[in-house]
Amino acid sequence: MKRLKWGNVLVTAYLAVYLLFVLFPIVWLVLGSLKSRYEALLVPPKLIFRPTLLAFDKILSGGLLHVFGNSLTIGLSNVVLAMLLGIPAAYGLSRMRGSARNNISFWILSIRMAPAFGLVIPIYALMRGLHLLDTLPAVIVAHLTINLPLAVWLLLSYFDELPEDMEEAALIDGASRLQTLTRVILPLSGPMLVAVGLLVFVFSWNEFLFAFILTSSRAQTVPALIASLAGTMNFDWPLMSAISVAALVPAFVVVFFAQRSITEGLTMGAIK
Amino acid sequence: MARLQRLARFPLGFVLPAVLVLAAIVAFPTVYLLYLSVRHWVIIEPLRYFDGLGNYVRVLRSPDFWNSARVTAFYIVATSLATLVLGMGLALSLNRSFFLRGVVRALVVLPLLVPPIVSGFAWKFLLNREIGVLGSYILPALGVKASLLADPNLALFSVVIADMWSRTSFMFLILIAALQSIPGELYEAARIDGASMVQEFRHITLPLLVPAIIIGLIFRSIEAVNTFDLIYVMTQGGPGTATMTLSIYGWKVAFTSFDIGRGAAIAVMMLVATVIGTTVLIRRIRR
């Protein structure tokens, strides 16, 4: 009994401190986004102030909305492409036998582990040669280098665990492999497809290095915009905070509505 | 028999499109990177030519490269160990049921999904010496008068804290998955034998967690080598070269000095180091 009590005290204290550590920067960001430029500079900071939506208004009126549009387009295109290419590949690999299967899936895993910096220079040089710098397709392709292996890998381990009985029944009834995939396998995979789609979108939405190197203005994404504003001399803290808060939306949506499925996805990708 | 043949034959058509796309966007650029690394190519100069190992020699002779290698090594060790210790605490704490556990777990996972550029910006905002609530108000009140991000000795430490904030959840997820696969009977048996909590952790939990710890450390190390966004937004590698990890250094060489060839040589060396590191460690796990 005694050990349990002390354990609980320790655990509660640890979690409380950790949650404070996690929440403090986010709360401060939200507060910062609601301040005026003058209030954001006050030391000691004012905790009671009249909140203003001026900074968010600047996103709308300052022509920054297209940056969010870019991030959204790149993210959704990645979801579509990763699914379109990844689902058949994962299903095919899952039903393949022998060394080809192992070699291909190991190759795909190794891409996932390779440092992004190794790809950014050649992709930059290639996109430059193709006159595709600062276009959405350049970033979409760059993100796919991570997202396609991720999707294949997660779906492969999911398809591996589906029982093959129903599929075999469909095949014996004369269904083609493609029909089996669309009518038998996919209806069983709804939650997993959602989880993979969310992971792919969030990766794309959050990614900085490729977006930063490959874009300058027209195709700029939200993280690249934040970094470029943070690099200027005349800081507009409320505006940067407001953009950051808006950039947090997908993280919050995913963590509170799909945490279970997406974290399973995250650890599976790591442990397999 | 016909069915077996169909089973054996069909999948290539399914697999091929993805394999071809990855060959085009990953394998080909990797080969192209090798090619770029033996070329002299500075974007602002007209001349391009084959330079053999010239880029590699110049990189290896540069003191900045060795400084970055040291900073990166420190960054890998510091962030891996810090996230391991914090993540272990979280996994042990959340591996039991209590009121609001789901919400706490969600909040613990949250930073992992936050764009690292936002995590970095948030910490820069907090630690700023002029206006940040921690840097200008709370820390000076506690006696820390230096500016964390502008002091060469403290800047790296500040970046490590932001990294801890951002990536501990990853370690937590790996460790809690492993913890939940430990059978409860082991603890029951230990309890009957009168083992203390510390003994349980030392003799049951820890040994069974070793594979997960190693996997976590591999992934964290790869991530640490790759970390660019967090450091870029907080310090851009500065002050001086205090937080200049290899990826920041490579970026500076390739994209601010426009020396693509030398940048490519740095990238190749990072690639080789990562591949060797992971292969060695993966073999170790399998053994």
Molecular structure report:
The complex is a heterodimer of chains A (272) and B (287). With 272 residues, chain A is mainly α. Chain A has two domains: 2-33; 62-271, MetI-like fold. Helix content of chain A is 79%, strand content 0%. Chain A has 15 helices and no strands. In chain A, helix 4 runs parallel beside helix 7, helix 5 (99-113) crosses helix 7 (136-161) and helix 12 packs antiparallel against helix 13 (237-247). The relative contact order of chain A is 0.13. With 287 residues, chain B is mostly helical. Chain B has a single domain (54-286), classed as MetI-like fold, CATH 1.10.3720.10. Chain B has 13 helices and two strands; from the N terminus they run H-H-E-E-H-H-H-H-H-H-H-H-H-H-H. Chain B has helices at 2-9, 12-37, 54-61, 63-94, 101-113, 116-127, 133-141, 152-179, 184-192, 197-226, 229-234, 246-256, 260-286, and strands spanning 39-41, 48-50. A two-stranded antiparallel ribbon of chain B has the order 1-2. The relative contact order of chain B is 0.14. Classes of the chains: A mainly alpha (272), B mainly alpha (287).
CATH architecture annotation name of the largest domain in chain A:
Orthogonal Bundle
Query: From the helix content, strand content and strand pairing of chain A, which structural class follows?
Result: mainly alpha
The name CATH uses for the topology of the largest domain in chain A is: MetI-like fold
Shape label of chain B = globular
Number of helices of chain B: 13
What is the H level of CATH, i.e. the homologous superfamily of the largest domain in chain A?
MetI-like
Task: Indicate the proportion of strand residues of chain A.
Answer: under 5%
So how many helices of chain A? 15
Compressed to H and E, one letter per element, the order of chain A equals HHHHHHHHHHHHHHH
